Amino acid sequence: MKVIVVKDYQAMSDLGAEIIANTIKANPSCTLGLATGSSPIGTYQNLVKAYENKEISFKDVKTYNLDEYCGISRSHPQSYYYFMHDNLFNHVDVREENVHIPAVSNDSLDEDCKKYNDMLHEASIDLQLLGIGGNGHIGFNEPGTPFTQETFIVELTEKTRQDNKRFFQSIDEVPTHAITMGIQNIMQAKKILMLISGTSKADAVVKLLSGEITPDFPASILNNHPDVTVIIDQDAYSKM
Length: 240
Ligand code: GLP
Known about the structure:
By secondary structure, this protein is of the alpha/beta class. The protein has helices at residues 9-26, 41-52, 80-87, 109-122, 158-164, 183-187, 202-209, and strands at residues 2-6, 31-34, 62-65, 67-69, 99-100, 127-130, 152-155, 177-180, 191-196, 228-233. The chain has one domain (2-233): Rossmann fold, CATH 3.40.50.1360. Helix content is 30%, strand content 18%. The protein binds 2-amino-2-deoxy-6-O-phosphono-alpha-D-glucopyranose.
């Protein structure tokens, strides 16, 4: 695991975008695994700038998102479908047919998971972008999720719902379930880029970098992946 400590959120976002832009330049038809949350927003803003400056094009890029809430529609401002379009896809030349975001159809959750999982099996993700939950979750793989898990419906922990409450009017509005790539899907990516910012992630950084691998802290499995870069800002690194 390559650890890069940077000054602040902006520096993390600059480097994050540079790594992704270089991936696109090296292979304009690459496949990216994308994440939501506040961690990647600055990175996406930089990628939009790079597109506007004609440094990169998403014309042939394929994308697969990690996860999506259950129980809110794609048009809900807090859906991850909405987030991705609002922060990235609406501002670049990605083709909608190349965008993949897990979805729940309300017919059969098992079918929804199988459908997304089959897509992931056919894809080959060149670079997977990740944030980290305060409890170590990646995607929405909460503590205790087996490392062999593939796409599934997860019941969100109270901690995760509280962490994400800031985006909703009240805790009652925060979805209780989500569909997420499993840890095994995430680990299949050729490269992984994790972004960690802020003091609220300082304990998570200590656990991640301790090297102990345990399902109680899902992100710890990244220690077993051959090509992981973690960009950590000084606030998040402050307990090291
Ligand atoms: C959500 C997402 C994760 C994300 C995490 C951290 O729960 N499902 O993919 O990494 O939040 O979010 P933030 O970057 O806002 O701290």
